[in-house]
Amino acid sequence: MVNVRKITEDITWVGANDHRLNLFENIHPIPQGVSYNSYLLLDEKTVLFDTVDWSACRQMIENIRHVLAGRPLDYLVINHLEPDHAACIEEILLIWPEVELFSTEKGFMLAKQFGFTVDKQVCHTVKEGDTFSFGKHTVTFIDAPMVHWPEAMVTLDLTDGVLFSADAFGSFIANDGKMFADEVDFDRDYLDEARRYLTNIVGKYGPHVQFLLGKAAKVLDKIKIIAPLHGLCWRKDLMYFIDKYDHWSKYVPEEKGVMIVYASMYGNTESAAQALAGRLCEKGMTNVHVFDVSNTHVSYLIANAFKYSHIVLASVTYNLNIYPVMFDFLDEMRMLHVQNRTCAIIENGSWAIKSGDLMQKFIEGNLKNMTILNERLTIASSAGEEKDGELDRLAQAIVDSMEEVSTDTH
Ligand SMILES: Cc1cc2nc3c(=O)[nH]c(=O)nc-3n(C[C@H](O)[C@H](O)[C@H](O)COP(=O)(O)O)c2cc1C
Ligand SMILES: [Fe+2]
Ligand SMILES: [Fe+2]
User: Which of 32, 94, 137, 350 has the fewest CB atoms found within 10 Å of its own CB?
Assistant: First the structure.
């Protein structure tokens, strides 16, 4: 059944929602689904901005046919070649063989690599700042390398002020009828998933996101609507979301708060993690969040590491090493360039306690600008009342170090 929504008078969403995919990029759980957004402009010419994942192809085609109402499709703008958006290019070419394509040089190169037969089409290779008119609507192309792939660009419709922002400003969670962030309680219901999407997918490329934000800032007065390839569009309060992106891409914590991540087999390290949480709350720091590393998907841990100012790592020793799942979290933080955080360490072991030193060494060797508090809590199998003073000093050190934290990006 046709399912479309208008973005402006001339631009319509013709994308689709996906609740069947378990793992985005075959790695990140998406329990609330995801949308693939594709947009169709009706002007003197008709223009499609990106396609959708292969699984959503039929829905998109049905939507496009409905909106075109018998008109031909004249142009396809390919902002991003990743198959969750580009998979249906070939289908478009089969149905509308006369369609002309716009993409970057790298975009066309990748199209060929992926086996999309674009040789017979008119291909417009665009560069930063190029403009093109489709009638009433003029667009300009802006390179967005590494947001999320090297070929990526974003397209600004100067007429309606719509920024087709590719993966930037996207989010997990299927749209399910909603189209604009002002139609939902974004802060309450969507922000966590937007953060998890961005930090896990382009967390590593903070400087590239900053570069794009810098370019967007120069044309901010022209941007009325942000239309990403996943999730909701923005037409109100754009600065709220731009500010979130600013935090994530500068690796500045959004909030003063503590995430306590523990790795525990028999429950003793877990017990210490819980006791620390209690002590912090007693001291007035109630923005405390406890995670069992063994049953929390690492994408959630990464998102929270980007959110909070403090990370407490509590791990058992395992074959003279860091507990493997905790090591995975640390390594993921390394890969995604998590930085500028204050850390504290709790270690446990029954005969050769190594995890604390190893975690400290890993952080010092691999993560930038991390402060590691001296007040480490060392547990030999289980912690009794004799550890109460140490626990208290650790909690106090965390609370005291909050004063150093800035959540300001400027
Ligand atoms: C497979 C395995 C390997 C372990 N390796 C070490 C080790 O190298 N050094 C050590 O001190 N304890 C080692 N331990 C013991 C645990 O780290 C220790 O019992 C710890 O107190 C468990 O804390 P928990 O109650 O939070 O699980 C190992 C335990 C297991 C099951
Ligand atoms: Fe992508
Ligand atoms: Fe995507």
Answer: 94
